Amino acid sequence: MSQVQRMSRLMVKTLRDDPADAETISHKLLVRAGYVRRNAAGVWTWLPLGKKVLDNVSAVVREEMDAIGAQEVLLPALLPREPYEASGRWEEYGELLFRLKDRKGADYLLGPTHEEIFTQTVKDQCVSYKDLPVMLYQIQTKYRDEARPRSGVLRGREFQMKDSYSFDITDEGLAESYALHRAAYQRIFTRLGLDHRIVSAVSGAMGGSASEEFLAPAAAGEDTFVDCPACGYAANTEAVTFPADRAEPADASSVGPMEELDTPDTPTIESLARQLDIPASATLKNLLVKVDGEIVAVGVPGDREVDLGKLGEHLAPAVVELVTAEDFAGRPDLVRGYVGPQGLAKVRYIADPRVAPGTAWVTGANKPDTHARDVVCGRDFEVDDYLDVVVVEEGDPCPSCGAGLRLGRAIEIGHIFQLGRKYADTFQLDVLGPQGKPVRVTMGSYGIGVSRAVAALAEQTADAKGLCWPAEVAPADVHVVAAGKAAQIELALDAAERLRAAGLRVLVDDRAGVSPGVKFTDAELIGVPRILIVGRRAAEGVVELKDRRSGESEELPLTDAVAKLT
Ligand code: ATP
Ligand code: MG
Ligand code: MG
Ligand code: MG
């Protein structure tokens, strides 16, 4: 929709300095350029410029979802406990769930994802196989009490998600709905201008079988993926599985000598650190998981680590013991892969990491062959800390062809699942089949982080000067900058109007009393793809047209500039 937005009337306050707590590019720049404003940890306001970008992303998502025949609905975010109780996720989600009570004391939650409610909706609305297949979607606010909300809108506790759900009566039908979503996602991310990879993923709390993630490579990403330059194999490191024949089962002798730790009666973080001869502020390296006294998973955190300081706050009076080599003896299923020079530092097995809070774990202690035992998950560290564990290294053999794997950091922007009948079983979602008998429905679920996509785009496209949006999502097509004099402002407004008439969305900097230097800096920070400067040769009708990304500019008559832009 073509329009002219005057900067003199736009609520935008740009900042010269990065917010003190900001670590990622998107966090810094979206705040500095006046796109978002923080209200609380992981809770954000979308200011006018930010709202435009968010809406542009939503529009692309909506168009492509409509194009595959998905129907848009809007379900509540405030949800009753019962359906989540029935699926087991009221418990399973643990502290991630925002729970609340109404005035009568009934339990509610703020929806983190909506499989349960969509299943109930379809159970209510679809009765016959003729009503299926059906695909439903919504673009809605989701709530998750993330352990460490950081990185601005990349990881919010309140965020925008497009979630969709497919309902079929056959496995082939589900495969088709999944394929439609997969293709739609590729079109969406391509149109948005996001560099992305599709990788194999683990299903996690969602349940179900097949699952793939859409990852946007970026240094700020919290996911690590591998890809094989030789055969194209790609997977989230959480999902890499090595064939059994490649595994070198560990036995007691290959684990190497375990150092005995002389445990004081009430170990503190300081005493532990002293014994291990490491700084108390060090971060843990290895993570070994124990559930009911059994080691069920072993991981290596790579550059993701558990904060020993945090662990230390809760260590006393926990009993700290060593994991002995016997813990691994005769359990080749546990220690697949190989045991490196750091003892257990290069083990490549990972089991379901969603261990219930309160389970005793065994953790690494940043020292070869030394581990702390009976560290309690949920008390001493978050399950999320463990989920971040990286288990594969650069150059490790590709599970599919054996060539050296490459490792990369990325942001998870989308995730698609073939759920199968898990939720349909819970809610007895059947339709009347062609033979008049009830048929159990099979489901898929598909998510896109709409607000996260804005941040991911900022991460991938920003440069030293600021944001630098791809055309499809930019808050405007052209940013017209009037250098300052009244005549220049007049000509700029005239140019803006002509561009609008030609169908463009125009942001025009008509602010009086703001220096040209500040206006240019702001234009570069805000990141509209094309900048039209009405400056020193305005009187002759000559303007400067600048490409935000390349920085290339040319002087030309206004009429030619308008023609070029439209
Ligand atoms: P992550 O691994 O980053 O925590 P997830 O696997 O928990 O994400 P899903 O349950 O797969 O997320 O949700 C679908 C999509 O929603 C994700 O692919 C991601 O793009 C987005 N998303 C998830 N959590 C957040 C969040 N806290 N803030 C913003 N977007 C999010
Ligand atoms: Mg998550
Ligand atoms: Mg994930
Ligand atoms: Mg996911």
UniProtKB/TrEMBL annotation:
Known EC number: 6.1.1.15
InterPro entries reported in the protein's UniProt record: aa-tRNA-synt_IIb (IPR002314), aa-tRNA-synth_II (IPR006195), aa-tRNA-synth_II/BPL/LPL (IPR045864), Anticodon-bd (IPR004154), Anticodon-bd_dom_sf (IPR036621), Pro-tRNA-ligase_IIa (IPR002316), Pro-tRNA-synth_IIa_bac-type (IPR004500), Pro-tRNA-Synthase_IIa_type1 (IPR023717)
Superkingdom, natural source: Bacteria
Main localization (coarse): cytoplasm
Keyword annotations of the record: Aminoacyl-tRNA synthetase, ATP-binding, Cytoplasm, Ligase, Nucleotide-binding, Protein biosynthesis
GO molecular function: proline-tRNA ligase activity
Location relative to the cell: Cytoplasm
Domain Aminoacyl-transfer RNA synthetases class-II family profile residue range list: 52-470
EC top class, as a word: ligase
Record-stated family: Belongs to the class-II aminoacyl-tRNA synthetase family. ProS type 1 subfamily.
Domain notes: Consists of three domains: the N-terminal catalytic domain, the editing domain and the C-terminal anticodon-binding domain.
Function: Catalyzes the attachment of proline to tRNA(Pro) in a two-step reaction: proline is first activated by ATP to form Pro-AMP and then transferred to the acceptor end of tRNA(Pro). As ProRS can inadvertently accommodate and process non-cognate amino acids such as alanine and cysteine, to avoid such errors it has two additional distinct editing activities against alanine. One activity is designated as 'pretransfer' editing and involves the tRNA(Pro)-independent hydrolysis of activated Ala-AMP.
Protein name: Proline--tRNA ligase
Organism: Streptomyces ehimensis
Gene: proS
